[in-house]
Design goal:
The structure is a homodimer of 366-residue chains. Chain A is an alpha/beta fold and 366 residues long. Chain A has ten helices and 20 strands. In chain A, α3 packs across α9. The longest helix of chain A is centred in the middle third of the chain and has 17 residues. The first copy, chain A, is globular. β17 of chain A pairs antiparallel with β17 of chain B, so a sheet runs across the interface.
Chain lengths: 366, 366
């Protein structure tokens, strides 16, 4: 069957690979789920793997199948599956366990090992193909009523995890009821965290460089959040007008913004870093001021990456609530479909060149 | 009675003030404790208040009595006191509640208000006098067997809080068993956090510029921690040899060290900022590298200041264990006593000039 793959280490090696079709029996103990792939989303990670910035093939293979944002239908399930049945819409988690205590207790998103086993990213093939099989443990049901949001399940799980981790860390406070949040960046993670926070009743200001009128700004406003163009109104101005934030999510893709956000956080607040930057830029900061301000205000920063099945389930619950509260808004993130695995070059072209795209994804099957 | 006070806003205004002696009945509902002051410690905060960098007098007064590290004996207790009895050795917490939810639930160290009410620091008189009175709620008993550690109760409460907050935040991990810690700085807070961590069985590396042989380095080694002189062995070298740390406490008093410590933290680790810097120094950091490293490693930073009575009690428990495990070691922090309130100039001179002093304190009464 067809698969979109790269040769890890070789820049721009994306190609169509012919790979064997998996069987449900490939997974032991009757616990396998064979998934017919319907759609797969791509993001900056796929782009960087094709740029050979990271990514490794599974042991024994020369190629790595791309794609970690999956959506499909359970075509066949092993006899000992209990959660998923044939015909269910499903998505799949990305990381597979290593050997640390965090992997053993089902929180492999928190692995303390240096090596990650991630489908479509590192040492495990991804989902940009016709079929895949995996253990039921890593397959998450998508309700029929959310099938129109298909490839958003994985990015949504990352947004859900990031905010959940902040609340978990803040249990240190005994009481924590954030009122005002800033979200830096209005890419998919920025928009999805804006959603998660709005569903908690938090007043959200979403910051981006572009002026109002973009699709992102319309989605922000559709979620009853405030869109702020930093080219017109700098963050400091908003702080002057409304005060510092109780919670800030950095999804800007800029480490300068990530650090500068430290200045906009209020007492007992949490700054979540949810985006990364692959380069080696430096930044000069007001280290004394931030240091004293963060100590006297008991402030907290956390980095968040990946998600386990619990976060996929949280994300799905939030998407369900979103469709009740803001019907049709989140689906607008799904901007750029490409039909058929044969069109992999167009998929990558859109991913690299189409700056207005919020989500590029492939319709693998109808 | 005599008190050591400053005129807030006027640099180097430390002087002897004659103030009224308080009565147990000054506190309503029979809940007062009148404390005869035995000893009071001073630290950088007292120095900076005398430098007029901050500090305000209580409403109606022109002077602020200094001193927030108290040790005394309960001379008289109100009829409705239940925790403290006449003759008990006691210390007192520093911050008094404002109006935020955190103040209302007994965690005024986490107040979300901008104004702090702190005895000896801001808007409330301190303990560098002959007697003080306060509500029993803010008076903490010191066991007789720990009376030789007297003025260390307050700094110990800050060390206990900082480490406790890290563990509380890490409940987000479900399991967290840090193995290796770095402590930056070997002043009193650095030494006391080294102690707290050692009592948890954690391997501790304590970093300071001075070469081995100082009293600090002897105390570190007395706690079975490893003293590292950064003038001989940079932090990066230790990381190369033993790996990154699961927990780092910055008690260096340098915001450069505070930020640079971010690079030495391992996966799922916590960096605690426990010291502050009053200047306005800038610092250039590798923002991209730290950003990606912190996100992929799910790392956490928290600022910690002050302590509530729960932390005083934790600190006292740890000091008791310390005397069982490392008898006589912690008392060596108490380096520089000054006898009598009349000698306030010598107290301030030692605080400012005696660089080798770990703890300057006043013997107010015998």
């Amino acid at each position: 069957m067809k698969a979109i793959a790269v040769y890890p280490g070789k820049p721009n090696s994306v190609h169509l690979e012919d790979i064997p079709r998996p069987k449900v029996a490939d997974i032991p103990d009757g616990k396998g789920v064979l998934v017919r792939v319907l759609k797969v989303g791509v993001d900056a990670t796929d782009r960087e793997i094709n740029d050979a910035l990271y990514g490794n093939a599974p042991p024994g293979d020369k190629y790595l199948v791309l794609g970690h944002e999956s959506f499909g239908v359970a075509e066949e399930v092993g006899p000992n599956c209990r959660r998923v049945k044939q015909g269910d819409f499903v998505t799949a988690t990305v990381r597979r366990p290593g050997g640390s205590i965090y992997d053993l207790i089902g929180t492999n998103d928190m692995t303390s090992e240096e090596t990650y086993y991630e489908r479509g990213i590192n040492l495990r093939h991804g989902y940009l193909t016709e079929y895949f099989v995996d253990e039921e443990e890593y397959i998450v049901r998508v309700p029929k009523g959310l099938s129109h949001l298909h490839v958003l399940m994985e990015p949504m799980s990352c947004a859900a995890k990031a905010v959940y981790q902040a609340y978990e860390a803040q249990r240190r406070m005994k009481v924590w009821r954030p009122q005002r949040a800033f979200v830096m960046g209005v890419g998919q993670i920025g928009l999805l965290t804006t959603l998660v926070l709005r569903l908690k009743g938090i007043e959200v200001f979403s910051f981006a460089r572009s002026k109002r009128g973009t699709l992102s700004s319309q989605i922000v406003e559709g979620l009853e959040a405030k869109y702020v163009s930093t080219s017109e109104t700098p963050v400091e101005q908003v702080v002057k007008e409304v005060g510092k934030a109780d919670l800030i999510v950095d999804a800007s893709g800029s480490s300068h913004v990530a650090f500068d956000s430290m200045k906009a956080l209020g007492h007992n607040g949490v700054l979540i870093w949810a985006s990364i930057t692959g380069a080696d830029r430096k930044h000069e900061i007001s280290s004394d001021k931030i240091n004293i301000d963060w100590v006297l205000g008991n402030k907290l920063l956390l980095g968040s990456v990946n998600a386990n099945r619990e976060h996929f389930e949280m994300g799905i619950k939030d998407l369900a609530l979103a469709e009740m509260m803001y019907p049709g808004v989140i689906g607008r993130i799904l901007t750029n479909p490409v039909d058929g695995l044969d069109n992999y070059r167009e998929l990558m072209r859109l991913l690299v060149e189409e700056k207005s795209a919020l989500k590029v994804y492939m319709n693998v099957a109808g």
